[in-house]
Each structure stands twice: as C-alpha cells, then as structure tokens.
Design a protein that fits this description.
Order of helices and strands: HHEHHEHHHH
Shape: elongated
Radius of gyration: 21 Å
Distance between the termini: 12 Å
Number of helices: 8
Number of strands: 2
Number of domains: 2
Oligomer: single chain
Amino acid sequence: MVSLAALWLPIILSAVLVFVVSSVIHMFLNWHKGDVAGVPNEDDFRKAVGPMSIPPGDYMVPYAGSMEGMKSPEFIERFKQGPVVSMTVMPSGPINMGKSLTQWFVYSLVVSVFAAYVAGRALGHEAHYLSVFRFAGVTAFAGYSLGLPQSSIWWGKKWSSTIKSVVDGLIYAAVTAGTFGWLWPS
C-alpha cells in the first residue's frame, strides 16, 4: 500500500499535464468546433427571450413539473408540437475564463487524488509501470468520462459531442496513468 502523501508529486504533475493537454485540445485542434451551434435568427431569439429575465439555471421546455404532469394530454400535445428545448442559462456579462480554468484544474486534482487513492491501496511501492498505469488510468477515465453519456441519454446532447468528450477523457486518463507510472515511488 502506498499513502496519498507519497503520491503528491504524480497527483499535482498529472493535473498540470492534463490542464496543458486539454488546453491544446480545445485551443489548437478545433476538435470540439462543431459541438454547439447558434440558433437561427439569434437577434430575434434574444429579443424574445431577453425580456423574460430568466435567472441562471437549467430549464426544460415544455416543462411538466411532475411525473403526473408528463401524462397530461396538454403536456403531451405541447411536446408533440415543439419546440422541445433543454437549455442552460448562464449569468450575463463577460466570460470568466479564469474561474472556469481554476475549477477545471481543481477538478483535475480531484480526479488525480482518486486515481492515487485507488492505485495506492491496490499496489505496493515496487509495482510495475503497467500495473500502476492500469489502476490509475481506469480510475482517471471513470472520473473524466463515465458520467458524460448521461447528458446525451437524458438531455439530448449530441452523441458526437459526448463521444468526443469521452475520447478527451481517455486522453486525460492516459496522461494521468503515464504520470503515475513514471513517478510511482519505489
């Protein structure tokens, strides 16, 4: 068994490397360019929706409110007629990339801590690179990817976007696993 304290370096370095790799993927490779699209007649949409002052949050249109409401003929008809919309409203104002990037780095640290915990409990100090890679990699993949399909299953997110994000998670997991394998204490 290897303690979390003994794994501080691979925890931090793997999070830093994932941060760098994700920056390259999102800023230079255009891999996610087609994940979202603008609505037709964006100006008209903004004029229609803007005065509603919808607070930040997640919304569904039409909205039933309950399981019983989903069975009502009125709801079923509204759902048939459309539009059917699942949307996230964010706060107005400038985009705060600093906040988002900080949250992403903290999230990467959390995934690395879990990878360290699982690998550290399963393996000893003299573990082989491939064993460390497997335990840390599977745990990191679970942290980065396994929750993503829920957005396509339940909220209609395009499967192509979800699959690309799962592939991103596989890359981040490989980076994490490689870092742990490389820096595993002997």
